[in-house]
Amino acid sequence: MKRTLILTSALIAVAASAQAQDKQLNLLSWGGAYGNSHVQAYVKPFEAKTGIKVAVSDADNPATPIKGQVEAGNVTIDVASVEYADAVRLCDEGLLEEIDSSILTAAGDGTAAADDFIEGAITDCFVGTDVYSMILAYDDSKFSDAKPAGPADFFDTAKFPGKRTMRKGAKFNLELALMADGVAPDQVYEVLGTPEGVDRAFAKLETIKNDVIWWEAGAQPPQLLADGEVTMAFAFNGRIFDAAQKEGKPFKIVWNGQIYEMEGWVVPKGAPNIEAAKEFIAFSTAPEQQARAAEFISYGPPRKSAAALVGNIEGTDVPMGPNLPTFADNMTEALASNLDFWVDHDAELQERFNAWLAAN
Amino acid sequence: MAKALDPHAAIVTEAAGPDEGGTLRTADGRPLKQALVRSSRRARRRAFLLVLPLLLFILITFVVPIGQMLQRSVKNDGFSANMPSLSAWFHENPRGTEPDDAAWAALAEDLQAAAKARTIGVVGTRINYDMPGTRSLFTSAGRKARSGVEPPYKEAILEMDQKWGDPKLWSVMREASSPYTSNFYLAAVDRTRDEQGDIVSAPAQQQIYVKLFMRTFWLSLVITFMTFLLGFPIAHLLATLPMRRSNLLMILVLLPFWTSLLVRTTAWMVLLQQQGVVNDVLVWLGVIGNNQRLQMIFNQTGTIIAMTHILLPFMILPLYSVMRTINPSYVRAARSLGATSWTAFRRIYFPQTLPGLGAGALLVFILAVGYYITPALVGGSSGQLISNMIAMHMTQTLNWSMAAALAALLLAGVLVLYWVYDRLVGIDNLKLG
């Protein structure tokens, strides 16, 4: 009897360990420098710690394959990194598993994860991994005396001559225009929610319409700055940071008036390895891992307790902290992009923006 | 004996002479005509089997997807499929009926069901197309409805948000309660529906598509004309030079043709931008001052220049192939009969190049109408074409029905122009190479 028991438990143990080794996780990320930060800071330590093998693949925008796979009923992705806006939309359309925030790792001092994350970083289906932002940047060599300090200066072509470059689209630009027109960041969406507010934003944009080159791909603004085609840009912070840091360009970032958004993990509905996916999400959103990821790319961790843990820029001895959108000094005049506003008004304002652009 | 199906056998028996009934028969006694038809039918079937893979390929990769895409322009069941009770109420009650208790009950029931099935976002998106600002009305109502809605439903739902009482919202929901709609086509020509369901112009600041359609066709015409102006002399030169030298020149025409579209577009950016090569040279020569640098890109000029360059080979190649076949002795004969060189060109040479010109112009024009990468990169704000709007609706707003409606109108426009071309020039006159 005893022998049978030992044998049985041994068999179960072997089976269990075999199963642990078989465990696998399919991660869908973005590739590039951003995808690399995921691999270095999350995937490798996770594999070392748990023995679960993680297969990483890339997509231009992981939200698109999620939609395709769930609708076709053939889901192979377990965890994907998507933009906040896409996460909310996919969640509303029932394409994502819900994630219970109680699985997340608490902060070092014992603060519950739900309180440690910045506002809005955890939703029904989404856990934030990083914060990126649209910032103003200028070519330092073009302005010898006064330096631009905020949105109002971006619209002041008399004081700061030269062309500007802005993203071709209504989102971000209307907010920036209102802030330049003197609206406080916490009032921006309230004003933009009224027809007069929209008119006001477009009127402000009109003042520099002839001085703007519109960009569509994220790589364009640093290029336009480097070519001397524009003197100021309204662009993603990571791109400008990379050009300044890695290529030594004299680009400076103005954090006043930054508009930030989040990216994070989602689990597609019917994912094959949900338990492993949750384990991975809990592991990778722990403060240490979030801080580590920020050393690879200048996107800020969405956890308050992670900010202090961020070290030097990988491969240098320059601290990364002040280059992150979430750095305390950078957040004083910051605006959180309001997703609800944009899902409601995206089409309408985008059409108006296009009509405004097309009218000469 | 030869097999009856062999046509040669039939001919052999035919030679043997007619039978008593006056009709020709094959050796086994069947009428010759029948046997011939049968054998040729078999040959046709074999030929059809040979082209079948290509036919299936075209059907699967071209006709079916395009058909499905076009269907989206009139069909969107985002509302009707997910709000069945309310849709049924709309069908039973004609327009103008005030929403009664049954309607509110149906709304409450559908909201709860859609919230549970997490399809409320789809419903909200559909209504948001016709009435901006309503998507969150649906998603937030869904969130509240998940915990249950108690009668009286009207009060309960108005409690969630006063906007539910808006007659415009009910009118839009009625429109959406049928999966088939013409609203996307209306929007594509800057029209919309008012509360009574009548067609009216869209607000002035939203009107854009008609203008962009006009601009697309106008710019495509300009670009076609430019490629003709630039391409005609080159094609003529290529056709008249000795083979060795013309082959060398031909490589110069084809080399950019083989280069990636993006590389060529980026090259134009480097050349034409304000700190670019052309402006630098002009400033260095003293033609313009340093602060008068010309804006040649990120506007309509940039679109025209870059697209003319990219589409040039499509004009040159058909022209060249036609010009090669023109006998030079015709022009010489005209000159010897006293025609000036202009008259000889106008009356003798040019008319003979028309088939090539027609083919080139049609190719360039149709390609230009659908171009979108180049205008997106170098067009700035004034050089955008309708295809940029289609791309935007496909990838950004995800309003595929709208994209399909715009694309269908573009396709219809091209077909009409093709028909006009056929009337004026004749499609048989086309020579593609």
UniProtKB/TrEMBL annotation, chain A:
Keyword Ligase carried by entry: no
Keyword Cell membrane: no
Signal peptide annotation: 1-20
Domain of life the protein comes from: Bacteria
Keywords, comma-separated and alphabetical: Signal
Protein name as catalogued: Spermidine/putrescine ABC transporter substrate-binding protein
PANTHER family with a match to the protein in the record: ABC TRANSPORTER SUBSTRATE-BINDING PROTEIN (PTHR30222:SF2), SPERMIDINE/PUTRESCINE-BINDING PERIPLASMIC PROTEIN (PTHR30222)
